[in-house]
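User: Just a sanity check before I run the rest of the batch. Below are the structure tokens for the first item. I only need the designed sequence back.
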């Protein structure tokens, strides 16, 4: 991270700052932009995971199975208490393995698994953990969580098992599904909060009540080989949601849900995504940012190698009017789009409320965003859309080697107050990025863009 910051600071010194306007930041040169990277194999992450798994070295490990605390595992009996007791034990001894045995299904209610724990805990989920399916029975004290883990240090989650949220009735009672339902929040299946040096790998998450996996206020988290699956029309079932976290890696994940495959929100920096298979869903998004006039800061985000199939968006940055702060130093590269409705999109007019959003002069500033080697098919003619604020325009948007086509049709780029440049082959043409007329003085100019049409409320 420091290197990235230093890099940009140097650029500020080296490169002429264009004019004296508040919103114009320095101009990046193509070569310089490409050399910027989120560090591969961050030392802190490597250190945290430099220890063997219990299956390869079970000798020194202390197995604490939910079965030995009375869990039944028939999918019907309530095993919540057994899980809680198992946690208390496993968390209190060094080199423990919290074990959910293979071949059985454990019904567990909303539970907080709190740390800090003794050294080198492994949470090994080989069997299935299933949530009660009836919203009416949900613990009213924990409306937003199901399996919530906090204050963990150097813990590994693994085991090849399944975590299934039994979300059907939650989706039916969502106001997204039926407008006469009240809008209320549903639980996140798996939450990792206030933690450091945690690895989550080789697990399946399915049919969550709302978001599948949320990582918040954490550092040095590595997520790999997750399979996340929910129906395309299940409301707000984001795959992985990251907020207020730094140094997060998400790799080799296959995600198909009813919302964003991966969403990245306020307070996230230095995050890398690699080898992501996304679809169905709403794509890979930064945002939404700046809701209710809030300040958001997101920096140094890289997506490298992804395939998006039949998603509503491809790679996206979305922010509300009235927000402040910034999203910058973002790179999306080596992405294949298959029939994606909005393959490349920046939307500073994101509005997802029942009433229309008022135009405001402040916005979350979006700059230094690179899209490189992105190809495939667009479902709509507007393959690239940069709908930026008149008063806080997007700057330093860089496109390189883009080829987005539409079956039996042509594609185009829409810009409003987006400034940047392109090189290599760029189809559709992105001439409109060269427009530099947005200085905040013409408030009527933003007319013409259409706001995202599907409904989306949370976040
Ligand atoms: C736990 O789940 C069971 C089965 O769905 C339910 O009957 C019970 O009320 C739940 N308990 C709490 C505290 O949520
Ligand atoms: C929506 O909910 C209302 C009230 O609960 C119900 O009467 C109606 O049948 C529902 N509509 C659909 C399409 O499910
Ligand atoms: C945004 O993130 C910062 C940094 O973590 C945090 O202090 C702030 O409260 C967050 N703002 C909102 C609106 O969540
Ligand atoms: C955001 O700020 C605008 C302009 O000051 C104000 O009209 C609006 O009520 C604010 N919205 C919220 C949710 O605070
Ligand atoms: C461009 O991206 C595709 C994935 O869509 C990848 O297969 C290819 O190797 C990339 N090309 C370069 C030059 O990196
Ligand atoms: C494109 O055109 C071909 C040949 O006319 C036709 O078979 C195909 O269905 C069309 N595809 C779409 C998406 O319109
Ligand atoms: C503002 O933008 C509108 C729409 O593009 C244009 O018609 C008008 O002439 C512009 N006004 C100024 C002062 O530039
Ligand atoms: C907001 O601004 C856009 C473009 O300047 C305009 O088309 C739209 O009507 C405005 N909306 C409201 C609610 O003022």
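Assistant: Here's the designed sequence for the first item:
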């Amino acid at each position: 991270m420091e290197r990235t910051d230093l890099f940009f600071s140097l650029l500020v010194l080296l490169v002429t700052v264009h004019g004296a306007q508040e919103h114009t930041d320095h101009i990046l040169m193509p070569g310089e932009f490409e050399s910027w990277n989120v560090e591969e194999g961050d030392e802190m992450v490597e250190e945290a995971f430099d220890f063997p798994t219990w299956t390869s070295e079970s000798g020194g490990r202390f197995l604490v199975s939910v079965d030995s605390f009375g869990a039944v595992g028939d999918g019907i009996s309530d095993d919540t208490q057994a899980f809680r007791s198992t946690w208390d034990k496993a968390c209190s001894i060094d080199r423990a393995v919290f074990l959910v045995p293979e071949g059985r299904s454990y019904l567990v209610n909303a539970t907080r698994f709190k740390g800090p724990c003794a050294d080198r805990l492994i949470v090994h989920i080989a069997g299935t953990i299933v949530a009660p399916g009836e919203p009416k029975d949900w613990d009213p004290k924990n409306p937003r969580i199901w399996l919530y883990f906090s204050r963990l240090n150097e813990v590994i989650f693994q085991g090849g098992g399944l975590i299934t949220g039994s979300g059907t009735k939650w989706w039916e009672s969502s106001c997204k599904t039926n407008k006469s339902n009240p809008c209320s929040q549903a639980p996140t299946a798996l939450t990792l909060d206030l933690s450091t040096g945690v690895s989550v790998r080789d697990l399946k998450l399915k049919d969550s009540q709302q978001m599948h996996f949320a990582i918040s206020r954490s550092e040095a988290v590595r997520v790999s080989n997750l399979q996340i699956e929910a129906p395309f029309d299940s409301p707000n079932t984001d795959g992985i949601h990251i907020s207020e976290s730094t140094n997060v890696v998400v790799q080799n994940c296959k995600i198909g849900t009813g919302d964003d495959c991966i969403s990245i929100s306020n307070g996230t920096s230095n995050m890398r995504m690699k080898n992501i298979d996304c679809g169905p869903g709403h794509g890979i998004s930064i945002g939404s940012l700046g809701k209710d006039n809030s300040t958001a800061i997101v920096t140094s985000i890289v997506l490298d190698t992804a395939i998006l199939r039949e998603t509503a968006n491809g790679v996206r940055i979305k922010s509300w009017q009235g927000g402040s702060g910034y999203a910058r130093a973002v790179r999306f590269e080596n992405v294949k789009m298959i029939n994606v409705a909005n393959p490349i999109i920046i939307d500073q007019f994101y509005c997802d409320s029942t009433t229309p959003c008022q135009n405001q002069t402040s916005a979350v500033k979006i700059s230094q965003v690179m899209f490189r080697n992105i190809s495939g098919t667009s479902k709509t003619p507007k393959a690239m859309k940069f709908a930026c604020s008149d008063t806080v325009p997007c700057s330093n948007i860089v496109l390189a080697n883009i080829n987005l086509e539409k079956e039996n049709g042509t594609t185009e780029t829409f810009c409003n107050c987006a400034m940047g440049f392109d090189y290599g082959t760029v189809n559709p043409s992105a001439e409109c990025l060269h427009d530099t007329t947005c200085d905040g003085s013409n408030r009527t100019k933003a007319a013409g863009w259409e706001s995202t049409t599907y409904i989306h409320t949370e976040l």
